[in-house]
Amino acid sequence: MNYELIWLFFAGSFGGWILETLMAAWKNKRFVNRGLVNGPFCVLYGAVLVVLTVFYGDLPLFWLFCSSAILSTVAEWVAGHVIEWFYHEKWWDYSNIKWNLDGYICFPMSMLWGFLGLVCVRWVNPFLLGLYRMLPSAAGVVLVWILIALLSVDILATLIVIAGKEKQNKNWELVDSWFMRMSGRLGEKLYILVNGRFERAYPRRKEYEKSDASAFAFGCSFYKVVLLFFIGSLLGDITETIFCRITAGVWMSRSSLVWGPFSIVWGLAIALVTVMLYRYKDRSSMFLFLTGTVLGGAYEYLCSVMTELMFGTVFWDYSKIPFNLGGRINLLYCFFWGFAAVIWFKALYPKFSDWIEKIPKRLGKLITWVVIIFMVCNMAVSFLALVRQDERSRGIPAEHTWQQVMDEKYDDEKLEKIYPNAIKVET
Fold first, then answer.
1. Domain check: are 39 and 84 in the same one?
2. What's the maximum distance between 2 C-alpha atoms anywhere in the chain?
3. 230 and 195 share a domain?
4. Which helix (H) or strand (E) holds 175?
5. At residue 206, what are phi and psi to the nearest 5 degrees?
């Protein structure tokens, strides 16, 4: 475990909390806690800082500025939509600033994020790491684990309270979540604390009413997104398989999972693009193309990074294709993401959405939860198989039962057939 990176995450989260709190205090003329959690952390700042440090820290100043501006803007845009999707509220609004996109992002703020990212990576990070290295080794490790534990408890408490509040959207006067029934006065105080802090921190937040439509999975609902994830995973694998046949002349597996033809990258892309761009589905094809190009490229890059970090394996490499970035993405395939966004919303999504909404409610819910259980088990087994493959490559013997099962069911020969393009990364 890289304790220095975790330290930078907490330091960046704390610095972001200070920045957000000062900006809110300047606007509201009083102190408010602007973090999503109750502690002094804005975790989005910490996450962006770590990504910039790991993958863009060695870039020249201009490109580091551009990378920081783009990454931070995408993160802010995604976070705004996720908050709206989960909480049915809009917590910030740049609509009164020129060159904004739906009030979530704007050009002046993007420039500010680029400047802050540049300063933090080049000059603040060395100072923060110097502070951490001044601590005794054991003390630094203990401090990091204490921070992880505190943040985990804080996030859990916040999510529980928000889940209870979600149920109360129909009647704001009724404090009736399952958490409060279980925890009595403590739960009620926690609810009042968290909800009151949200009200003070985001006084201009806009609330969006949920639809009461009788159709199953109406609009951009949880059940529809799950089923679209499943459909997208299946269609994505079929599309890539046919594409490889046409371009390379061979049939090869493009699946992300060990059970069935499912591409998780495509499934998540379909689910995320539906959630993030649902409100823009009736916009022009050019808008959807440009947005899909940028978001698709960022998404594919992130998937490549995460799989390499988790499994020590690169599942695709575009180094031989012109205009690539580290072999993880290339301009041509980014355009493919843009075309896919247009085709999805203009042609495919309306049909799939209509089909899903015609499913009877009880049957639809049953199918959705069967899909969830199957895909969770599928991803868990695939994860263990890949972890065990990495262990075998490093000569780690099978001492536990799960390792022995993975060696028997999913040896290197079988995994090479499932993941023919996987390349082991030397560390």
1. yes
2. 67
3. no
4. none
5. -105, 135
> CA nearest 355: which of 255, 224, 241?
224
Is the CB of residue 272 less than 8 Å from the CB of residue 299?
yes
Q: Which amino acid is at 261?
A: P
In this structure, what token pair is assigned to residue 367?
């199918």
User: What backbone torsions phi and psi does residue 184 show, to the nearest 5 degrees?
Assistant: 60, -135
Work out the number of other CB atoms within 10 angstroms of the CB of residue 259: 14
What does DSSP assign to residue 208? -
In a domain, 215, yes or no: no
Tokens matching residue 279:
């409100």
Q: Where are the beta strands (DSSP E) in 180-236?
A: 206-207
Instruction: Out of 146, 176, 207, pick the residue that ends a domain.
Output: 207
Please state the length of the chain: 427
**Confidence at residue 393, expressed as pLDDT on a 0 to 100 scale:** 86
Mean pLDDT of each 10-residue bin along the chain, 427 residues long = 87 89 73 69 89 83 87 85 72 83 86 93 93 90 91 76 51 40 48 58 54 70 91 89 80 84 88 84 89 85 75 77 84 90 91 91 92 93 89 88 92 86 59
Instruction: Record the pTM.
Output: 0.60
Predicted confidence at residue 7, as pLDDT, reads 93
Residue 316 shares a structural domain with residue 189: no
- Dihedral (Cα; 252, 254, 260, 265), 10-degree rounding: 180
* DSSP summary character for residue 211: P
Report residue 83 as tokens.
Answer: 């908050």
Alpha carbon 276 to its chain's center:
11
Q: Which domain holds residue 345?
A: 222-424
Neighbours of 96 (CB within 10 A): 8
